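Entry type: protein chain
Record version: 2
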Amino acid sequence: MTEEMVPVDPDSKITFDCSSQNECFNECCRDLNQALTPYDVLRLKNNLGLSSQKFLRTCTSLHHGPTSGLPVVEFKPNPDAGYECPFVTKKGCSVYPDRPASCRMYPLARAIARSRETGQIVEYFALIEEPHCKGFGKKNGQTVRDWLKDQDVDMHNAQNDKLMELISLKNRIMPGKLEGALADKFYLALYDIDEFREQIMNKNLLKGLEIPKSVFDALKADKALLNFGLSWVKKELFGIEMVFKG
């Protein structure tokens, strides 16, 4: 299958609509090879009412990225359904409010460049035009900016950009496959977030760290814990000192 990627900017107009009325409805969910970010996992496990450990065990598989060498979590293929997403139904996505960022972005691709001096992020977008998708030409007048707002993708992108910063740092400082205890810490803090909280609260994982009580108490909330985990991984992998506010 070939695909064409057409560069677009936030104010470019696109003619696209994903609808159950399209003859290709759900087809893009039936041939899936999809990596999940930590924020994707967080949203999905909460949607399903599962612990992170149970969600990861039952719904995902684990391997290492060929370029980053970091643990990568993907949807687990169903032998009876090929590469179909485990959450697709005849009526559409059963976890739609908490679907992954890549699902929200489609048919757009997004890349970022971060200034090392200022940390400022510049976004780049491209339109993916795949032959199987019949959603093009269905809706006029919306811009790329309109589409992104409608898909409520800003929070996903903000969280995923933090992960990309960590991956970029790892590739510069520690190229190659991450193995052993370091790989376990990366997976624990960023994906198995409920177990990470359990080890912090009840198993003294952070022994030796002087953490303000306000910061420690905030770790009961998932998003705060995920952001803390990103900083903790930087400390464990690269020796970067954690800075606490509170």
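Comment: The beta strands are 4-8, 13-14, 35-36, 60-64, 71-75, 88-89, 92-93, 108-114, 121-129, 142-143.
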